[in-house]
């Protein structure tokens, strides 16, 4: 089997799962945080640094790569792994989210979405078939169905239509998908409407995808609303398939997502935050530019084993930011990514050892102190 | 001896030297290219990457560090080595060049230079004594006398006055310099006037500095003019002391500088060029953004052993630049630095093995082909 998902342990109290996802480029231990390499590079990081922080898989964006450098060039390179020199698994999104959020004027038709490039205004027409073909060209290990995202707040009728279209498009993606060394996941939409979410999940399950993504969350709703949808889907989604909560990267949401049966997460948060000096740490979130760190010779996070925390002081990293030096963005991105990867590794170990509820309590207690390190 | 310079071999044909400069933070093998870490970081690089490319020493700028974060903070950190986590030798300039080139309005007085910060316009007064004290606070292994630079073209009277002031200031720097774990170099000025250059060198030699810098070159003069000044100084400067040609980093100038008895070079060129995609290679200089590299799957430089050349294609690095991705600037800075360091390492080996003239010919032949790799 090129793809297989094995659940290794389930927390009896919460339903949190530890598992292994077998892919052509290696086995991914879940729960897992997947760093985002939008344009075939995880911002500020090199591939070998990604290996050093034990990133198991990176995500890349079909929309961006389709526009530049184009899938043809990446095919000539021998696929995205070789192009970007990353030899562990890659997940690609379908471009659905970006077509709606990034592009200029877009027109949704039954066949697909007409949109103009955010780079040069050129007109393009993205369809479920094209999104699938592009992802096959990229050669990612895990691909996504082309889906229709809606903005929140959103009325039920709009959400219903987007779910129905997402389902029709999912069928078309599955229909044309050929590569057996690539797993195609279905995406559950339905905004914040419980019945729509359930219906969407059940229809996708009937199509029998090798994994299920939960889309359209972390787009402005409250944490409680997000958790309600996850609680709703947890018992519906098949236990034996991986579940991927798209675009979620805040530490609290990761731990609570795991507690609701989620296996995979991705987000630009750690690298975007890193570039502006915002740090995610075991003691909460803070910005390195704050004057209270001027003479702070301690590490970003005393519990972290990353290069930034092992070798540099907060005072020095603050100086790098104030001076606009690239090493500042590098060290903070590095730490943030390592922190989220370690957090999920810790959750996994706790699940395997039957102490996830304690791990979760301890995380919240420490993270919410937000005390100055 | 905390400082010692040993000439290990001299090319009988050109006078090119291979030597060892002993410093409190290690032995530097010369000739050497010194990467510039203006604000306590070599742009786009981490300290461990600098070790990997075998940087033996880095340069940092007194003017910048004096303004931000301030020498007091760096002293609290335990000195510049600890602040920036670089444990090999550091050379600091005196701030003379920046006071004239970067600051806003400046007024030269006999006592020093009144200038306004390029950061916030605040007024400062830099003197030979302060420049020395600041460098002692930074704790660099090699410090520079505070000198007066003139812009080219420059009339002889202006140049003469600047030489006389530079000599008076050098005496004052030497007078107040206390740290015996820091070598203070004198700087030869004199624009393009042969007699002024000679006089300046002889006066400095009489003051008996542990090393001599050649300043005020690579500021717009022709290569021939630069080489004429070097040819002039080569027999005057004491053989047993190291010679440092300031601000020179173009490969041709490095090799020709070595051929004229220079031991040390520094320049922002490799990192500044790297950030805009300009590459220095064994086959000449080119910009990675050029369309001819669109489908070029080869390395930047087939003769280079750096991470960028070992692991990434020109097509991919071009994509990174076009997408504005930080990894592009990192890989090109990385390569450019490694190239200059390797070039000087190659020159050293050639001198030690008695084949420097052939090395020099071969370098020019290959570098001037400028052929597309």
TrEMBL record, chains A, B:
Q: What class of enzyme is it?
A: transferase
Q: From the UniProt record, which GO molecular function terms apply?
A: metal ion binding; tRNA-guanosine(34) queuine transglycosylase activity
Q: Does the keyword Signal apply?
A: no
Catalytic reactions on record = 7-aminomethyl-7-carbaguanine + guanosine(34) in tRNA = 7-aminomethyl-7-carbaguanosine(34) in tRNA + guanine
Q: Where is the active site?
A: 93, 266
Which stretches make up the tRNA-guanine(15) transglycosylase-like domain?
Answer: 14-365
Residues bound to substrate:
93-97, 147, 189, 216
- Any single Gene Ontology cellular-component annotation: cytosol
Supply the alphabetized keyword list: Glycosyltransferase, Metal-binding, Queuosine biosynthesis, Transferase, tRNA processing, Zinc
EC id: 2.4.2.29
The family annotation for this protein states:
Belongs to the queuine tRNA-ribosyltransferase family.
Sum up the protein's function in the record's words: Catalyzes the base-exchange of a guanine (G) residue with the queuine precursor 7-aminomethyl-7-deazaguanine (PreQ1) at position 34 (anticodon wobble position) in tRNAs with GU(N) anticodons (tRNA-Asp, -Asn, -His and -Tyr). Catalysis occurs through a double-displacement mechanism. The nucleophile active site attacks the C1' of nucleotide 34 to detach the guanine base from the RNA, forming a covalent enzyme-RNA intermediate. The proton acceptor active site deprotonates the incoming PreQ1, allowing a nucleophilic attack on the C1' of the ribose to form the product.
* UniProt protein name: Queuine tRNA-ribosyltransferase
> Which species is this UniProt entry from?
Dethiosulfovibrio peptidovorans DSM 11002
């Amino acid at each position: 089997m090129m793809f297989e998902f094995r659940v290794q342990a389930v927390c009896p109290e919460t339903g949190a799962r530890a598992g292994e996802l077998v892919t052509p480029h290696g086995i991914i231990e879940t729960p897992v945080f997947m760093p985002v390499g939008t344009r075939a590079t995880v911002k500020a990081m090199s591939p070998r640094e990604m290996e050093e922080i034990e990133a198991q898989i990176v995500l890349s964006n079909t929309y961006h790569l389709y526009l530049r450098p184009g899938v043809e060039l990446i095919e000539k390179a021998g696929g995205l792994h070789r192009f970007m020199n990353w030899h562990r698994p890659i997940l690609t999104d379908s471009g659905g989210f970006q077509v709606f959020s990034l592009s200029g004027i877009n027109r949704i038709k039954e066949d697909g979405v007409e949109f103009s490039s955010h780079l040069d205004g050129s007109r393009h027409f993205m369809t479920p078939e094209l999104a699938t073909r592009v992802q096959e060209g990229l050669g990612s290990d895990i691909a996504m169905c082309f889906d229709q995202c809606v903005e929140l707040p959103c009325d039920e009728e709009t959400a219903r239509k987007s779910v129905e279209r997402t389902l029709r498009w999912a069928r078309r993606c599955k229909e044309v998908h050929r590569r057996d060394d690539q797993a195609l996941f279905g995406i559950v939409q339905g905004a914040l409407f419980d019945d729509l979410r359930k219906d969407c999940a059940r229809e996708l399950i009937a199509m029998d995808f090798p994994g299920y993504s939960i889309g359209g969350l972390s787009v402005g709703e409250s944490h409680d609303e997000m958790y309600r949808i996850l609680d709703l889907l947890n018992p519906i989604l098949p236990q034996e398939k991986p579940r991927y909560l798209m675009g979620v990267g805040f530490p609290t949401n990761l731990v609570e997502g795991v507690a609701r049966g989620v296996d995979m997460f991705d987000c630009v948060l750690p690298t975007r935050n890193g570039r502006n000096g915002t740090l995610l740490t075991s003691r909460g979130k803070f910005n390195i530019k704050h004057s209270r760190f001027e003479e702070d010779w301690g590490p970003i996070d005393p519990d972290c084993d990353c290069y930034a925390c092992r070798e540099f002081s907060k005072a020095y990293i603050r100086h790098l930011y104030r001076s606009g030096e690239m090493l500042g963005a590098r060290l903070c991105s590095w730490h943030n990514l390592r922190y989220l990867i370690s957090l999920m590794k810790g959750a996994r170990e706790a699940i395997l050892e039957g102490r996830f509820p304690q791990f979760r309590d301890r995380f919240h207690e420490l993270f919410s102190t937000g005390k100055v390190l």
